[in-house]
Amino acid sequence: MHEPVIPHLQAEDPEIAGLVEAEARRQFEKIRLIASENYVSPAVLEATGSVLTNKYSEGYAGRRYYEGQQNIDPVELLAIERARSLFGAEHANVQPYSGSPANLAVYLAFLQPGDTVLGLSLPMGGHLTHGWSVSATGKWFNAVRYGVRADTGRIDMDEVRDLARRERPKLIWCGGTAIPRTIDFPAFAEIARETGAVLAADIAHIAGLIAGGAHPSPFGHADVVSTTTHKTLRGPRGAMVMSTAEHAAAIDKAVFPGLQGGPHNHTTAAIAVALKEAATPGFAAYARQIVANARALAAALLERGYDLISGGTDNHLILIDLTNKGVAGKPAAQALDRAGVELNYNAVPFDPRKPFDPSGLRLGTAAITTRGLTEEHMPQLAAWIDEVVQATAKGDAAEVEQKVAARIRELLAAHPMPGWAPAP
């Protein structure tokens, strides 16, 4: 049963309703370890599906190009004020449609085509929009990339400093998509100040941890901070760009009219709801539990002989190199999905395999923590992962997949999912 219910969808378009129902059941029955996924609250779902989707609101509060904004302006202003209060930001723009446009707005605010940008290499854990070659950011700008140390798997700050001194980038990115360790925002800020660069922190993965006090904050160090609003922040699929007051006008102009037209008001409202939820003591406890679960799962995997990049985790994310297990990331991820464990195959630093068939797995603990799993469940989860990986390496995993999937369904039946429950 859906919460909120969807009787009109079921009546008007049973085909789509059936797929929504199937997806809800899939999310209920699987241990979801994709690091960029979570479950939102029924309140966020309601806001996302509200009549605010009917309204077009090009511009900013008090400066719109369409009439009828009497209720929309307060919604956006609430989202802005809640973002500023939660993160301690001087300025917040809540209109970006998603993380990549938010990052593009940072480029538009500070750079001209051809300018130099320094970011973490994609195979080392960075994001496409930090200057990778297939992204517009790598085609339109002179992208210089730093990496991680081969001996520790951690960002090589000496390399960052040397590259910044030599290349003199106008923009330096810190943050990424597969970084299992704490980001040293003060060290990045020192390098940016020394070389005259703007420092941008991409906290898409760790925003909820920062909001809950489970990870150091970039505010006070970075000039501009971008983030998605799902992942650990547990909001809708949207994004924000926050900055110092000095850069507020440039950021706003870059988002609109630089890159976008009218904002998605239903998403803005859902972001506001999620930000209110994230300001509660319960959310702070949730953020701490995410990290505790990740560390417990990492320890259990290490005990079973898994090679973890950087040797463990400080946040929600674990990156595994499966080379010593005799199986590549893609077949392992596909087998685990059939077994009820949803994660993604992922390149690891210095990976000799191709990106679409890499050596690693990436997993995160935000969604399973929302379901109420704790440290006590992590050794069993590691055992299930290991059982499937070993069977996949041997080429005969079908029976193991079915057995593990059944046990996972049994476990998760006792842990409610926000937004949906099986019919009684």
TrEMBL record:
Annotated site residue numbers, Plays an important role in substrate specificity: H230
Subcellular location: Cytoplasm
EC assignment: 2.1.2.1
Enzyme class: transferase
Cofactor: pyridoxal 5'-phosphate
PROSITE patterns: SHMT
Similarity section: Belongs to the SHMT family.
Protein's name in the database: Serine hydroxymethyltransferase
Gene expressing this chain: glyA
